Amino acid sequence: MLSMEEFFDKEEFERWFKEAIFTFESALHDKEFKFYNWACFKFQQAGEFAIKALLKAYGKNTLGHSLLKLFEEIEALGIHIPSELKSCARTLDMYYIGTRYPDAYPEGSPHEFFDETSANIATDCSQKIIDFVKGITNSNV
């Protein structure tokens, strides 16, 4: 595993991680006002920004939006990703397109396919990813 102190760009990490927190809080507001599809999308984005914060801090390229694939890049650094977080990544990955595009469904609009339950699952998964990334950086930087 890489030594965090040797290769870690704390300023770049903070820049991306703060955006993850801001986006998470924005998603909570959308959830409160029952904009569940947008809340789910923003929870996905918050998780993505948190993961990218860690990768960017190591100077890694962060192409793509799949949290599961981004976790693979973190594992390549020698950081173990628990299976529960991979499961969360899979869930949030499903909220990247379907939450926004009407043509993701045979008929209807995205706002019809997301509810409080889906938003609660997205909240939980996004929070777990943010906490994981924060835990790694707090214990090593």
Short description:
With 141 residues, the chain is mainly alpha-helical. The chain has 6 helices and no strands. The protein has one domain: Nucleotidyltransferases  domain 2 (Four Helix Bundle (Hemerythrin (Met), subunit A), Up-down Bundle), CATH 1.20.120.
Topology:
Layout: H1 4-7, H2 10-32, H3 36-57, H4 67-76, H5 83-93, H6 116-140
Helix pairs in contact: 2-3, 2-6, 3-4, 3-6, 5-6
If you had to describe this structure to a student in words, what would you say it looks like?
The chain is mainly α. The chain has one domain (7-140): Four Helix Bundle (Hemerythrin (Met), subunit A) (Up-down Bundle). It is 67% helix and 0% strand. 36% of the residues are buried. The model has no long low-confidence stretch (mean pLDDT 94).
Which features does this protein show?
141 residues, mainly alpha, Four Helix Bundle (Hemerythrin (Met), subunit A)
- The CATH superfamily is known as Nucleotidyltransferases  domain 2
CATH class: Mainly Alpha
Q: If you compute it from the alpha carbons, what radius of gyration comes out, rounded to the nearest whole angstrom?
A: 15 Å
What is the fold-level CATH name, i.e. the topology? Four Helix Bundle (Hemerythrin (Met), subunit A)
- Counting DSSP E segments of at least 2 residues, the number of strands comes to 0
Task: Tell me the fraction of residues in β-strands, as a range.
Answer: under 5%
How far from one another are the termini? Answer: 14 Å
Class inferred from helices and paired strands? mainly alpha
Largest sheet: none
